[in-house]
Structure formats: structure tokens, C-alpha cells
Amino acid sequence: MHRSHRPATGRAPGFLAIYLNDHLTGANGGVEMLRRAAGAHRGGVLGTSLESLAEQVAQDRLTLRTLADLDVPVMRTRAALGRLAEKVGRLKLNGRTVSRSPLSDVLELEAMRLGVEGKAACWRTLRSLARTDPRIDTALIEELIQRAEQQIRALEAMRSACASQLFAREARGRAATPHAAQAVRRRGLRGLPGTGPT
């Protein structure tokens, strides 16, 4: 992609330019989110996996930016919105006001997966366009589609694991509270920690 705001002809960007720039916006936010999440888990298995994914998504973003043969201009203001949206997203309430909430892992992994699914849709659109546009490298697009599908599977595995661990841990914590224990005693049930005979 060229780095000007408008094509050399001076015409306003067409639908393809807007479409690809929207995906570039999403890629900017995705890279930022992946790197931040990886930093929050640096030194662990999750952090290593997220860092690897961040590098892959950054490479995919570069590929999107360098589709120069399509003569699509990069809209810098629009591209910057992705980074801004990611930063604003950090302000949402996740059950904590100061420290990072464990719920952030689940929500961010869900957002990352949705983002990669959108990227895969973009690659499939370009694959369809390649049928009538010889400037598009079909082999490259196929490789990008396969890589996006691998990224989706990896993110889903991480999301599922984080969600299961978080909510199971929360359920165990609630069951161990005095109020929960008293309720169990009243019902004559057994089996929870600290719920011996009354």
C-alpha cells in the first residue's frame, strides 16, 4: 500500500481502499492488545504464546500494508484509530479498579479471536477478488488464510482454558465462604470444605 492519504489521481479512496484500511485499523489494535497481554504474562506459557501470536499478527499487518500492487492508499488517521480504540478498551470495568483483573484475560482473548476471524474474512475476500485481479498473489493469500485459522485455534484453546480456570476458581471460592457453608448446613448437605456436622 502507498502511504499517501489519497491516490495519485486525487480521487477519493474507493470501497476496496476503505475496506482494507478498516482491517488495517483492526490489525493495529490487535497487535497492541496481544503485546500488552503478553507483557502481563511474561515468563509464563500464556505470555510466550501471546508474544508469538503478536509477532505473527504484526507480520500479517505488514503484508496488508505492502499490498502495493493494489494501489491502495494507507489512511494514517484511520490506521491510528485501532491503537486508540485498544487503549480506550482498557478503561472498561472488569471487576477490578486498580490491578489487572483475571477477567481481562478472558475478555481480551475473546476480542483477539474475533479480530483474527475478521482478518481471515479479509483474506478470503482477497482470495475471491484474485479470480478477476491478477495482481493478487493467490498462493500468499492461501498461506495467510491457513495461518489465521491456526491463530484462531490457538486463541480459542487459550480462551477456553482461562475461562474454565477463572470461573471454576470463583465457584470454589464462593462455596468456601461462611455464608455458603451455613447454607449447606441448613440443607443438611455435606462435602464442602468446613461444612462438618452442626
Describe the 3D structure:
The protein is an all-alpha fold. It is 69% helix and 0% strand. It has six helices and no strands. The chain has helices at 15-40, 45-65, 76-89, 102-129, 138-175, 178-186. Helix 1 (15-40) packs antiparallel against helix 4 (102-129) and helix 2 runs antiparallel to helix 5 (138-175).
List keywords for this structure.
6 helices; 198 residues; single chain; disordered N terminus; mainly alpha; disordered C terminus
- Give the amount of beta strand, in percent: under 5%
Secondary structure tally, helices = 6
Kindly name the structural category.
mainly alpha
Termini separation = 73 Å
Roughly what is the average pLDDT, rounded to an integer? Answer: 76
Instruction: Give the radius of gyration.
Output: 23 Å
Q: Using DSSP, what is the number of strands?
A: 0
What is the ordering of alpha helices and beta strands? HHHHHH
Multimerization status: single chain
The rough form would be described as elongated
Helix residue percentage: 55-70%
Sheet with most strands: none
Give the uncertain stretches in residue-range form: 1-10, 77-91, 93-97, 177-185, 187-198
